[in-house]
Every structure is written in structure tokens, then in C-alpha cells.
Amino acid sequence: MDAFFASVEQRDQPQYKGKPLIVGGQPNSRGVVAACSYEARKFGIHSAMSCSRAYRLCPQAIFVPPRFEAYREVSHKIREIFWRYASDVEPLSLDEAYLDVTYTADFDGSATLIAKAIKRDIVAETNLTASAGVSYNKFLAKIASDMDKPNGLYVIKPEQGQAFVAELAIGKFHGIGPATEAKMKKIGIEKGRDLRLKSAQELTEKFGKSGHYYYNIARAIDQRPVRSQRQRKSLGKETTFAEDIVSTALLISTLEALAETVVNTLQSQQLKGRTLTVKVKYANFQQVTRAHTVEHQLDLPTVKHLIPLLLARTEVGHKPVRLVGLTISGFEHVNSKQQQSQLDLQLSDLF
Q: Which residue in 345, 334, 250 sits closest to 292, CA to CA?
């Protein structure tokens, strides 16, 4: 996310927009800057700086205390968005995460198009912007995410990795802090290409167990997997209409299209669920959900069969609708070679 804490404050307090804003302690306190807006960064202010120094650099800055509950609420929302597209999500902080989209079927598996979709969803659902880095490993994706801020998207393709790292200043390497940077510069390492000239043995002797990591990233190699802190429990998709909808047939066709996307994504991740939930938000913003759990595993024909039955338990057709959504949960991992059995559902309990 772009200037996360400060952007949330500017979103919620319009009078702060376009102004240098500092989230943290008060100007004359011993506190530090937790975050600052891009307008404040123009004065040389950055996170972890003392608030007293920040005040000296920009006396006109607005200082506000952090509201962590508000930030956590947004963090929860953006992680929900991440899980719509990624098979694994590894959070780094409230506002940043690694996403593995190797097995995502959306956009024919294009990581760049998936990143664009995630950015669009974040703007639409939080009114905040995010920057994305796209590449073939964690190290390069992390570096790329900082290359085009704010509201940016930077891609490093496999054939570009080594050349990109060769020209990267050593201080820009993720995992190399100021102390290590200074130590490297003392032995002539200014850029990635200088680091690449050092042998694994030499780097290990000078930097301990981190030496092997430095040896690999100098060659744009990073084999670390994205490690989720939890398993995906559900996958859903929703859409908000430009105009309120009364037509039941249109709502059914919209949900069927959403269902195809959800089921295809689950299949690509070798997951199947047993519970279908349909969400309806009426024009008056009242929201209802209707769910049904099957004995076996849901497939697309069964989901499409269930959609009108679940909608029949709402006031669709009588009340205008502004949003519909569909979620599948109750996952089990399935063998991709396992043949899908036909479901023999008893639907009488839907009514």
C-alpha cells in the first residue's frame, strides 16, 4: 500500500488531503514518525525519524496519532482481495505481502494482469492505492514493488533479472541494511555486478550464513517459497452494479459468470468446496446471505443449479439489488488426476 497509515488518514479526513501529514508522536515529543504522506516526504521526512526532527524539517506538517484499528480493518480487506487471486499469501506487515499466483487461472495466468486486477479491486473497495512488483521470485518482486510508487506497477521478466540486479545499488537490495551496506562498500561492492564478482566462500567468510543468500541474489536467484500463515478457507467474487437491478434473470446470469471464475480458480489450485454462499446487497444497503452445503464436492453445474434456489430465499425480484456475490468454502485438496464424480444432491431442504 502507498503511504499506508497516512493514506488512510487522508481518506478518512478529507481536510488532510494534499498536505504534509505525519502519523506518530506530537511535534515536540520523543515519539517517532510511524508513517508520513508523500507531501511530507518531499521535505526529507521518513518513517522512524524523530517527530522533533520532522517538525524542524516541516513546521507546517499536520501530526496525528495512529489509529491501528482503522489500519487493521483495511489490512483485513486487502488480504481478502489477495486471496481471491493467489494460492499462497505471505504477509510482511499490515500493508504488504508476497503473493504466489503460479496456479491462478485468472487472465490466463498473467501475473501482470492479476496485479492490475488486485490494484483495481483495492481502489474500488478501500479508496486507497497500492503499488505492485511482479517477478519470478520473492527478492525481485519485493524490489520491483518499490520501483514505481505511488500507484505503480513494475515488472521484471526472467530474461531481465540478472541485468536488473547488476545495475542495482547495493543499498537497494532487500535484506541488506545500512550496516551491511557500509561493510560491503568498504570492500568495493557498490552495485549488484560488484557483488556477483565475489565467490560464495568469500561472502560467507565476511558475512556469515547470509553470504550464501547474497551470492544467490547477486545472480537474481531466490528459491524461497511464499509461505502462507493460513490455508485458504474460502474463495469468492462479487460485483457492484452501476445501476440497481430488479431482473432476477440478470442476477442469475451475473452470478453464473462469477461462479465460473471462482470454480476455475479453485480447480487451478486443486481445491474443491462443499459450501456455496450467495450474497445479495439491496439498494438500501441491507445485505443478506444464503448458503447450502452439499454432501460431496461442488462442481460448476451444481453451483449453477443452486444459484436460483438460493436467490429464491431472498427478496430478489421484489427489491432492487446493487451488489451480488458468490463464495465457495469448506475446501478439500483434491488430486488433479482424480476423476470428478457426479453429484446426487438432495435439494429439498433448501426450502
A: 345
